[in-house]
What we know:
This protein has helices at residues 2-16, 29-67, 72-77, 91-122, 127-139, 144-159, 163-187, 191-199, 204-232, 236-241, 259-267, 272-300. By secondary structure, the protein is mainly alpha-helical. The chain starts with a helix and ends with a helix.
Amino acid sequence: MLEKDHRDQKADQDAMGPELDLTRRAWERRTLTNGIMTSLTWIVAAAAAIPLVSVIYLLLEKGGTRLFSADFMEILTGLPPAGFELGGGIGPAIVGTLAMVGIACAISIPIGVLAAIYLGFLNPSSKVARTSRFLAKVLTGFPSIMAGVFVYAIIVAHWGYSAWAGGIALAVLMLRTVVLAAEEALAQVPQLMKDAAYGMGCTRSQVVWSVVLPTALPGILTGVILAIAGAAGESAPLLFTALFSNYYISELAEPTASLSILIYNFSGMPFENQIELAWTASLVLVLLVLGFNIMARLVQQPRV
Length: 304
């Protein structure tokens, strides 16, 4: 019996052919190729990170002096200084930026998510869906200043500069990102989950609200947060819509300050104090955008 088993095992080995040698050798061709390509990848990644690191270092060097000083609360809450005035802060610009981004979120997120539901779930193959999807992709290459010109012609020319106009201009720019990201997230929902919900007797609206949206929520939130980060740093649309103000907003229907426009205004002034505040505002804006991007990465990570 043992001899028969040995003969059968040997026959199986002969049928399988010679045994594969999977030993890793340092001078083997595939090992050298893998090492060279890995090294090139790290070199290219490091080279691409040099501009980013240099910009962050420059912002920390120029703007961190004022931001991380003892009077940082005055920097974050004070009014912008006049020409020869010392001190001051960027408080109105921070509040104005948050107000206009909030208006943009209130407009673009509901419209974008509902449009994505129609494009990705309800009727993805209709002519309206194809046209809307094409227009959303066209908007990705739409110059941001054109959104400001569009809102200027529709709103500012009739009612004047305001936070509302700035928020609507930012909403136009956010909408493209929200729609495309939400549609892609909805497309990743497994069809088996939808079929199981229908098999349990759920209606289409119940499938959308109870199955599709909760499953796609991380992807949708990622697109929303990235859209917010992009809108927070826009300056060209706000030149035509919100203009600027040296004071805190008392109502949304008046010219409103923003960080990007404050940087644009102060960086061209011949006063050292204003130039330092422009660097500080740049650092604050970068930290805000960085915070939004970190939130997007955390939301995107799968939960186990």
